[in-house]
Design a protein that fits this description.
Layout (H helix, E strand, L loop, with lengths): L2 E9 L4 E5 L7 E9 L3 H8 L6 E4 L6 H6 L6 E8 L18 H12 L7 E6 L7 H13 L3 E4 L12 H4 L2 E4 L2 E2 L8 H19 L1 E6 L3 H14 L4 E3 L1 H11 L4
Parallel strand pairs: 3-4, 3-10, 3-11, 4-5, 5-6, 6-7, 7-8, 9-10
Antiparallel strand pairs: 1-2, 1-8
Helix pairs in contact: 3-4, 6-7
Length: 253
């Protein structure tokens, strides 16, 4: 059976991800929408997308659990964990996990994990400082692995060490290829389309790719339009499906 590989996701070390191809052999794309859980309208707009999407919920939202529980079966829910950024002007939220001793980091992670239930994985909200801190990320990944949760690194810094620590910690680590939008939606629909074109090229080249967006009207409108054509050429999945396939195939082992 054909084997697909990509350098955009890792399992237990720095060996490129290997995905067992489905019979149709289409490259795989996973779309993640961050920053949900603070407003019902944004959640409903994302939840209505007609193709599989991973919805990332900030754990401190008052209605985050209710929205997570209402997530469509075609989608997947993820915990969007606030992590310490390099620039303090970037507000990571009230439950941000800060760099510190192993016990401090572990308590911060466990505090966030306990805020919501019903998710399979975790990704970082901000986190440019913490994800580049080897000691802190070792504790984060060990804590997630102990609860059978995978980690999606949205790569808010090129200095992230999460993939390097996958083997040591026994964690399932995925890495996003790119952000699809930014600037609170001010970059516009054209920017989102260009990022999706680049994501398609990466998926075609590597076998799989992960794109991260936000619940901006422009982003969601472009995604809905894009998926109509993309589904014939790509297999659209959730990040949890990627993590499950990685576990089955042993990441190229």
């Amino acid at each position: 059976m054909a084997i697909m590989g990509t350098a955009s996701a890792q399992l237990r070390g720095d060996v490129p991800m290997r995905l067992e191809a489905k019979p149709d052999d289409r490259p795989v794309i996973a779309i993640v929408i961050d920053d949900l859980g603070l407003g019902r309208a944004k959640f409903e707009a994302v939840n209505a997308l007609p193709f599989p999407v991973t919805l990332a919920f900030l754990p401190y939202g008052e209605e985050a659990q209710a929205m997570l529980d209402d997530t469509s079966p075609r989608h997947e829910a993820m915990l969007h964990m606030p992590m310490e950024p390099t620039v303090r002007l970037h507000d990571a939220g009230p439950s941000v996990v800060m760099t510190g001793s192993a016990n401090e980091v572990r308590r911060g992670v466990r505090r966030n994990l306990a805020m919501l239930t019903g998710y399979r994985g975790v990704n970082n909200h901000t986190g440019s400082k913490l994800t580049a801190d080897r000691s802190a990320m070792r504790t984060v990944l060990q804590t997630l692995a102990s609860q059978d949760l995978y980690f999606l690194d949205t790569r808010t810094t090129p200095r992230s060490v999460s993939a390097d620590l996958a083997s040591e910690t026994g964690a399932v680590v995925l890495q996003a290829n790119r952000f699809l939008d930014g600037g609170m939606g001010k970059l516009g629909a054209g920017h989102v389309r260009r990022q999706l074109e680049a994501l398609e090229a990466e998926a075609t080249r590597d076998g799989a790719a992960i794109g991260v967006g936000h619940p901006y009207p422009e982003t969601l409108a472009v995604l809905k339009e894009w998926a109509e054509g993309a589904q014939g050429r790509f297999r659209l999945v959730t990040t949890g499906e990627l993590a499950s396939e990685l576990r089955k195939t042993g990441a190229g082992v």
